UniProtKB/TrEMBL annotation:
Residue ranges annotated for the Erythromycin biosynthesis protein CIII-like C-terminal domain, each copy included: 283-388
Tree of life domain: Bacteria
Protein name: Erythromycin biosynthesis protein CIII-like C-terminal domain-containing protein
Database matches in Gene3D superfamilies: Glycogen Phosphorylase B
Species this chain originates from: Microbacterium sp. LWS13-1.2
Gene Ontology MF terms in the entry: glycosyltransferase activity
Any Pfam family matching the protein: EryCIII-like_C
InterPro entries for the chain: EryCIII-like_C, Glycosyltransferase_28
Amino acid sequence: MATVLFCPVTFNLAETTRMIQVARAMDPVHRIVFMGYEDDYVGLISEAGFEYVSCTPVFTSRERDQLIAFDQGKTLKSPLTRELVGARVDVERQLIREHSAAAVVTGSNLTSYISARAEQVPLFYPVPFALTEPQVRQARHLFLVGGRGRVSRFADLLATAAFRWIYTKAPLAPGAFAQVAADNGVPPLRTVASLITADRNLITEMPWELHGFTLPDGFERVGPIFAHIDAPLPEIVEQLAAAAEPLVYLGLGSSANRELALRAARALGTLPVNVVAPIAHYLEPGDDLPPNVHVTDLLPAHRLGGLVDAAVLHGGQGTVQTACANGIPFVGMGLQPEQTWHVRMCEKRGHAIAIPPKRAGSPEFLDAVRRVLSDPGIRSVARDVQRAYADEDGAAASARIIEASL
């Protein structure tokens, strides 16, 4: 028996659920311990039956927003001071020692990249390919500039080249990481890419999404990993699925915002469809929505296959992969380059349509929803993708790789 310490960012829904899926796939002979700082999705960890250790210091709401923007490549400013980084590394090192952890599995909890190495414990990172170092080094386009015309594509080509240098070569990681790494006897983390590159990086993609790319040492494909929330579907979902009108799923994960949720929901409400929308966490009392839009809390989206006719998604890999695995064609509105990448890969495959989030609610948006509901070609590809997903289990593949190191 060995102990494996999981360190997700617990205010990130997709990351937390991805870690839960990997932990579930581990041999039960091993002891699984989760740790985290914020409490947004800790309930999902507890409901899955895993031990959880609550840690400090905790980010403020403002620091969270700034960290998400940094993680998404939208800013080089970071709330990660030497004091905070140092305190978190101390906490994590102590946990590794107390539990005699034989491996650490992380997400974008950046201090794990120091603490695990300081304790000389192997560090694993199940991660989407977008915005990893090999993807940034090799991709011609990172979709940093919106638009599809020649001018937009040329501008994106230039922006991608600039971002590539900033991300992989420029010493622009927050200075706290170099300082705290040195304090802990770890080689300094100076580039942005080095902050989120583990010892073993487990790429959660389908084979065709890596076509044309070469994975360097330390990177290997494991396949899709997405949430399986252990809860029954709300009764309203099956009622709506039995109605004559098509049923559309509106999934915006944890990285959207109230404005986008309202625009998308109100626009969908103008169509002759029913909508199930787990967007309650974005709404405020008094927000008025059309009667055919049914708001819920988080629901087990992996059980929507055969019930939902189409989806509108924010582009996070978890929501995209859930739709793919269920054969649901979708309209995707990537909120940042990683999410845009996921949507564009599906659009290229032929079972999704990419729309800029600023166009949510526009005639273009409504036309895209109508197309994914009615276009037989799009719907046929969605079924083909569903069949391909049936042969993939990224969580089990990740668990086997982690267990081989114990």
